[in-house]
Amino acid sequence: MEAILAIVITAILFCFFIRKGKNEISEQTTEDVIDSAYAEAYKLVIKQKKDVNEVDHILESKGLDESQRNSIIVSLLQIRSDKKAKREQRIANAPSDILYGGIWCIGGIALTCLSLRLSDFMGIGVLFWGAIIYGIKRVVRGLFYKFTRMN
After folding, report:
1. What proportions of the chain, in percent to the nearest 5, are helix, strand and coil?
2. Taking the CB of residue 72, how many other CB atoms lie within 10 A of it?
3. pLDDT tens digits for 77-132?
4. What is each CA distance from 20 to 11, 14, 23, 30, 33, in whole angstroms?
5. What pTM, to 2 d.p., does this model score?
6. 34 by DSSP, 3-state: which?
7. What is the predicted pLDDT for the residue at 1?
8. What whole-number distance in Å separates Cα of residue 138 and Cα of residue 93?
């Protein structure tokens, strides 16, 4: 009897959740439409560097009104200009990244060598791998942006 009751309750819950899921899938709100349009516009404007007028026509075909389209496009243009400004700043900082990265890397190597030389006396040696890795990362980033600027 308990097994039959458990099967009936399971079947009822299963039907309830299946029906609830279908209702949630079929009800697409305006926010969902705007979110999907924003995601598509982001891909077109930021990733593929499409023309804003072309993206505006695509958003219009999705049924968005002019204020919604303008809001999305202005937001995406702001993101694009922020990315460009950040890249220009990294290019300008490339020489200092190379210099300070080299200092961190050489300092980490020097302290590691000193620590290993003194390990006979102290009984323990320390590897300053964080400073070495940080320095290498910074030098590589500086070199990347320095050579990016030349192209």
Report:
1. 85, 0, 15
2. 21
3. 888 889 889 989 999 999 999 999 999 999 999 999 999 998 888 788 889 999 99
4. 14, 10, 5, 20, 21
5. 0.57
6. helix
7. 66
8. 11
Mean pLDDT over all residues of the chain?
Answer: 83
Average pLDDT over residues 2-22: 70
| H or E stretch at 49 | none
- The H-or-E segment that residue 126 falls in is none
Q: Give per-residue burial for 43-57: e unless 16+ CB within 10 Å, then b.
A: ebbeeeeeeeeebbe
Residue 128, token pair as written in the block? 């300053």
- Strand blocks (E) in the chain: none
DSSP readout, 50-73? Answer: --HHHHHHHHHHTT--HHHHHHHH
The terminus-to-terminus CA distance of the chain in angstroms comes to 78
